[in-house]
Every structure is written in C-alpha cells, then in structure tokens.
Amino acid sequence: MNKPKLIVICGPTATGKSDYAVKLAREINGEVISADSRQIYRGMDIGSGKITPTEMDGVPHYGLDIVDPTEEFSVAQYTQYAQGVIADIITRGKTPILCGGTGFFIDAVIYDRQFPSVPPNAELRKKLDEQSAEELFPLLQERDPDRAETIDRHNKVRLIRALEIIEELGKVPPVTSSLGTGEVPKGRRGIKDKQNTPQSPAVDSSPTLGEQKISTLRETPESRYDAEIIYIDKPDQELRERIEKRLVMRLEQGMVDEVRNLHDQGVSWKRLESFGLEYRYIAEFLQDKITYEKMIEEIKNKSWQYVKRQRTWFKKYLVNK
To answer: Are 30 and 97 in contact, with CB atoms under 8 Å apart?
Structure first.
C-alpha cells in the first residue's frame, strides 16, 4: 500500500523556509502546516516570526495560533493535530507541506512517535529550581548526552523538564529512531548540494535561497509518509547578517511591546522566559534584569547558538550526511 505523500521544508532559523513554502505551495497546489514550537501560541507573532496573512499570498496555513501561551501543548498533541490536518489536505486533493525549524515536531509527525506521558513532579521541580541552569546542564550531560547536545543549555525550564523525564523514564525518549537505538533508519539519503542533486519536479531552484540543499527521505518501514525532505541553509556570514537584520526589523515592528502585552494579559515572566531567545531576553529587559544593549547582544548570540543546535539536529537525525 502506497503511503501518503508529504513535502517537508526544514532548516535553521532565518533561512527563508516560510517564503519558499509559499512559493512551492502555489506551484503545486499545496497547503502549509507550520512546524514551529512557538508559532502554535496566540499573541506570539513578531518574536516567533509568524507568517502574516499578506505573506501567505492566499496559501492556507495551519499550526498557527492553536493555544494560548499560558497553556501547554505537547509534542504528542502537535503530532495528532498535524497528522489530522495532513489527512484533510490529502483528502481534498492537495499537497501537504510541513514547514519549520522544530526538528522533533517534524520527526514525530513523519515517524508517528508515541510519547509516554510524564506528569509534573512538584517535589523534584522544587529541588531542581534551587539550582542554576549552569548547574543543571552538567547533570543532563551526565544522564543523557544526546539530549544535552541539542537542548538550550541556558533554558532552565527545559533543563528541568528534561531531567524530570529522565527521573521518570531513565532518559528522554529518543526521536532518532522508532526502535530507540539512536540510528537513522535505512533508506535516507544524505544531504547533497543543490547543483549535484537530481532536481525534483516539484522544487524550483530559486536563487534567493542561497545555499539551498535538498535531501530525499525515501519511504521506509518506520515512516508514516513517503516524505520528500527539503533542507535549506545558508553560508554562516549571510545567515548572521540575516539574523541581525531580522532582529532590527522585529524591534521596529514592536516586539518589545508584544512581550509586555503578553505579560499584561497574564503570561508570567517565568513562562515568557521559558520560550527562549527573543521572549526570554526581552522579558529579562522588561524586569530590569539586563540593559537594552545586553538584551540585543544576548538575542544575537543565542540565536546563532540556536542555528548551530538546529544544524546538529537536522544533519544527525533527519537529513544526515
């Protein structure tokens, strides 16, 4: 039995994935599902880089504004949501395009991951919360080196959650293999430069994408879909410049006010900080923990660190070399 077709556009932040998804969707009668762990939240628009109605250019988009930022939305919930949307798109005779930079969302959808439910452990959280992120990270490194490799080592909330899961299950459930071996399933091709890769009829070699790279994930026994993976990246210097220009633009668009308004609407500072990057450091600035200049510096530096973590994850687990 043939598996449903799915196109996946992935890669580091600020590489132009959303623009490319819209262009491709218009060419192949597709619809886009966002795979971004922050764009699922209402009101988190500027800081998450959420696509605007104008930028959608008439292409239907899903996976945006699903829940309020005070609510939790697990990988399991996202997987169920996205797979339902994909099925609906296919039923209507259109092509689903999963687009984003949250690798474990994409992996969970393609490989139909089953995530055990680990309830909050209030006693453990209280104990871990007494330690700093700098103290928690080595604990995670010792107990689950794979998770430590891709987590934001400065995000205390995520570090505590990872350690909480480890305490319950022994380790964070792997997203690298349905068998839990950490091996990439057979049938995946490595990343190849665009010039040296047989071009898919569905993919246009747009010069605006810079160092676009393409890899195809063939149908495997482990996958739910026959998925074509389009991995997009850019040279380091160009990507750094794009991140800095994007930051200036977002600040001009009112990103600081966005974070202030979210707090005024009931989102705690701690919760805002847990979203990382822009939200974390703007929240710290608004609490007078850091200066405006320090906020800018931290967002730039941590955004680049995030790029490196994304590259590591995608190349190791989804489009391995």
So the answer is: yes
